[in-house]
Input
Amino acid sequence: MAVTIHDVAKHAGVSHTTVSWVIHDDPRITEGTKIKVRNSIDKLNYHPNVNARSLIRGKSNTIAVIVYFFSSIFELEVLKGIEQYFDEIAGDYNVNIYSTRGNCKRKEKILKEILYGQRADAVIMLSMNPGNDLLQEYRKENVPLVLIEESIKGALTVKNDNIGGAYMATEHLIKTGRKNIGIVVGEYESDESGLSPSERLEGYKRALEDYNLIFNPDLVFTIDNYYFEEGQVALQFILEKEIHVDALFCAAGDTVAIGILDQARKSGISIPEELSVVGYDDIHAAALVSPALTTIRQPIESLGITALEMVMKALSGKKVAIKDIVFDQKLIVRSSA
Amino acid sequence: MAVTIHDVAKHAGVSHTTVSWVIHDDPRITEGTKIKVRNSIDKLNYHPNVNARSLIRGKSNTIAVIVYFFSSIFELEVLKGIEQYFDEIAGDYNVNIYSTRGNCKRKEKILKEILYGQRADAVIMLSMNPGNDLLQEYRKENVPLVLIEESIKGALTVKNDNIGGAYMATEHLIKTGRKNIGIVVGEYESDESGLSPSERLEGYKRALEDYNLIFNPDLVFTIDNYYFEEGQVALQFILEKEIHVDALFCAAGDTVAIGILDQARKSGISIPEELSVVGYDDIHAAALVSPALTTIRQPIESLGITALEMVMKALSGKKVAIKDIVFDQKLIVRSSA
DNA sequence: CTGAAAGCGCTTACAG
DNA sequence: CTGAAAGCGCTTACAG
Output
């Protein structure tokens, strides 16, 4: 069906070896032969079978990016970052994006298939942990693995200073006179949760402690999917249960925080008078909602760019120091707190 | 290096053929042998080489999704749709997501590599046109190709009723008394632009015509990347040049429309009194900005779900009627118009 | 019930 | 300067 190297060889009147060498621009082939063969390639519309090539080379020229789910602008921005300089940094590689669709078994399957089934030559994982066993297997096989927003001993990591960011957010609320500060945060206890939720919780706790406020576990509200609607639900819950908070640090990000703002308006809660809200991410909408959202800005695209750079460096055989690369966060004060 | 089928065979004390058959659960193999072999597979942590398998099968069990760029929430939502029921609909397939990074040559290269290099067994394209030549090549090779938000004669298409949506938006502005209605729209003349911009422009024109307003080409403002900032720039341009408009239909989507709102606030233009704005998409932020954005809601996730269903149907050998599947749009009236 | 053999489409030493 | 041969890791008729 498809045109193979043999068809080209026959058409050009040479052996298939010669065709292969023309493709690889081997100096042993005369210019005349090259032209002849290239002509046949064009005429027959020949494209090498990627699978055969990868099989024999033992590498696929592909970088795999694994996301947990296409749930939020976070993924989008990181992917943008990875793409931004892709041609310059990783010209002859392809990117393949996989989603685990929130399934841990799938995650492991994908990671194993990539490693042992040779789907890709390197991996970038977003907000996900390969687990220690798989990490060791990757190291043994010498396949580069870079983690974004996740850290595990022995892995290459690019991340935000979530502890610092959460600290700043909480400190801001304290300094503006808030006493009962709740936190809305992603699931932080499961294996699948990624590191940032627990780090942000940690930063929140540290700030409370430094300012002599008591940490109250009842003021920790967790959400699962980082959806807008979960912010609405969280505030509904707080109001129904009559839980007393005068501020919410929405560590789960701006989209959820905006859900909180939305519910506040619907429930007649005035912001920031009755309730201060600080988000995380500084998405575009944060500046535009009413009241405008005070939030923490993180350089999301940079995470992607840096992760790709690390992967390429490792792929080129250079030693990459195993040391977390951490990006600073910035407090953006607007009207909501 | 990696464990092959031969290693498993040796470990289990059978031939590699037997191992292959165990993997495929061939009824000719006795249960005892199967257990023995599966044990070895687990012990050695064996995973079949995907490339070898694809090579021999002549198919890769992969569906390729091609996006133009990870630029907007639109891509994110479509991907969400494709994922949503993936396990149910397309259990043993993988998805690979490619981005052309806005490069037409890359697009063609990807499409040819998929087709002739056997990267994937079917393709879903987002807001992109394969071009007639490539479409014919896909049809000849019988590789399913489904287009989202793009239509070309002879291709399977899933799209929004952009003409209808734009008509509704424009009609709403007309009925609320606006006379000088501009349109902000994505690049619609280049090959790479996708179909929706020109369709939305068409809907806009038709509404003007039906209500006896003259179409003025000077009131068509185009943008390239669907970025927030482009909305700001567009309004700045209009103000600087003192172009007289009392309404803008931002067919380029809500993110850009919100950029317009932002610039309006900065420039002291009151919305909707001095300028009415209607967006397109109904993203979450649309309801939350101030003033809340009047917009057109489109079922983006459904596009992805339906496209995947069509691909799977075609892949299963069933005839799929070549007839555009068109989703209805809905006008959501808020405060900005 | 299991194995030896051919072959998928390519690459790459090895001859000539 | 070019070709015949072996092999990458699998699958699948074909024997036995």
In short: The first helix of chain A runs from residue 5 to 12. Chain A has 14 helices and twelve strands. The first strand of chain A starts at residue 62 and ends at 67.
